[in-house]
Prior knowledge:
By secondary structure, the chain is an all-alpha fold. It is about 70% helix and about 0% strand. It contains 22 helices and three strands. A three-stranded mixed β-sheet has the order 1-2-3.
Amino acid sequence: MSTSSPKPKEEEPKEDESREEESKKMTLVPGVTVSRPEEGGDGSVIFEVGWKENDPSNPLNWTLGKKWMAMLTCCALAIPLTMLTSIEGLTQDAFNAHFHVNAVAGSMTTGIFLIGIGVGSLFSGPFSETFGRNAVYFSTMMVVLLFIMAKALAPNYGAALAFRFICAVFAASPMTVAGGTIGDIWTPMQLPFGLPLVTFAAYAGPRMGPVIGAYTPEIGFAWADWISLIIVGAALLFVLLAQPETYSPVLLEWRAKHLRDLTGDKRYQATHASASSLGTRLLTNVYRPFTMIWTEPIILVFSFYLVLLYFVLFTFLNGYPFIFTRVYGITTSMTFIIWTAMMPSIFVAMALIPYVYSLTKKATAKAAAAGQPLQPEVSLYWAMAGASILMPVSLFWMAWTCYNDISIWSPIVASGVFGYALVCIFTTSYMYIIFVYLQYAASALGFMTFSRYVISGALSPASVKMYENIGPHWSLTIVAIIATIMAPVPFILYKHGHKVRATSKHVQNRA
Length: 511
C-alpha cells in the first residue's frame, strides 16, 4: 500500500493583492499618488501627497484677490525693513558727536548694516525653503524689533555697531524671501503684473528713510531708531494678521499631517518630507546658495551687474550733501528731502506695466504657436525700456549741471531720471531670477543680495572720500562711465541668455 503525502495547496498571494487593492483605493484621494521604494527597499508603500488638478489650495491657483493680499504684505515688509538702510543718514553728525567718533567711523553704521543684510540673505532664503516663508518673516521681524531697540539704547559705539549688524542680518528676509513668495504664487505670465509692486516697494523704502528721519536730529538721534521701531512693529502686526503661507512643499506637508491625523495612517508623506530628514533638507538648502557661486553662471552675471549698479547707487546717494548742501547752500535736512525726487519714477514705471505685460503676452502667443515654452528673457523688457541707457545719461547730466549758477532743478530732475532707471533694472533682475529658478528663487536671490550689499557696504565709506578729494563732478563722471559700460548688458542677455542658462545646474526653467 503506497502512501503519498498530500500535495500542499498553493497559497494565493493575498497579501500582494490586498496591498494592490489598497494602493488603488488611495489613488482615489485627489492629489495622492502611490510611491514604492526602489528595488532593494523594505517593500513598504508611501502615499505621496501632492496637488490635485486645479487645486484651489495650490498658491498658483489662488484667486487674484488672495494673491494681491500676499503682495501687499510683502510690500508691508519691504518698505520698513529697507527703510532701515537710510533712515539714520540725517542723524550721523549727532551720532558721531555723542560717541566721539569721526565721520568715517560714523558712516560705518550704514556700511555695517549693508554688510549685515548681505550675510543674512544667505540664510533667510534657505531657511524659508525648509520651514516656510512665514516662519522666517515672523521670527526675523521680531528679532529686528529687539535689536532696533537695543541700538537705540546702546551704551557705546561698539555696541551700537554690533546691534546694527545683528538687526541687519535678520532684516535681510524681505530682500530674498519675498522673491520666493512671488515665485510661489504667480505664473510666468502673471509676473509682469505681480512682481513690480514688491520691487517698487523695496525701492521706495530707502528713499523714504531720509525723508522720515529728516528732522530727527532736532529731537535726538535715537528717535530715528524709535520711529523705525514703531513702523516695523506696525508692519509686523499687519503681516501676522494677513500673510498666508505660500511655499507649496510646506503646505503639502501640512496636508499630509492632516491626512495622517485623520486616518491614523503614517504612510501619507509630502514628497520633499519623505525624501530626507529635516536636518538633511536644511543643510541642503543652506548649502545651495554657496554652490550657486560656481554652478550658476547666470547668477554670477546678474550678481556682477548688481554689484556695479549698487556701487553706482550708493556713490550717487553719498554725493547728495556734496551736490546740494555745499553747492547750493541748502540745509542738510532739505538735502535729504530731495531724495523724494526719485519717487515719481515709481509711478512712471507703474505706467509701463500694461505695456510690458502686452509684450509678454505677445511673446507667449508666439512661443505657443511655435510649440515652445515662454523664454525667461522676456523679463528683460523692463531694463530694455530705456532704463539701462538712461542711467548713465542721468549721471552725466547731474555731474555737469550741479553748479551754483545753474538751477537746482536740473540735478533734481536728473535724480528723478536716475530713479526710473534704477527701479526698472532692479525689477528686471528680480523678475529674471524668479522666472528661471522658481521654487529656488529665494536661494538664488540670497547670493545676489549677499554680493551686492557686502561690496557696496565696504565701498560706502570710500565713496565719501572720493567726493571729498575730487569733487562731485568727477565723482559722478566716474560712476557714469561704469554705468555706460553696463548699459548693453540687458540687450546681450536678451540675445544670448539661453546659452548661459544651459550651463546652470539649478535652473528650474530651461525654456
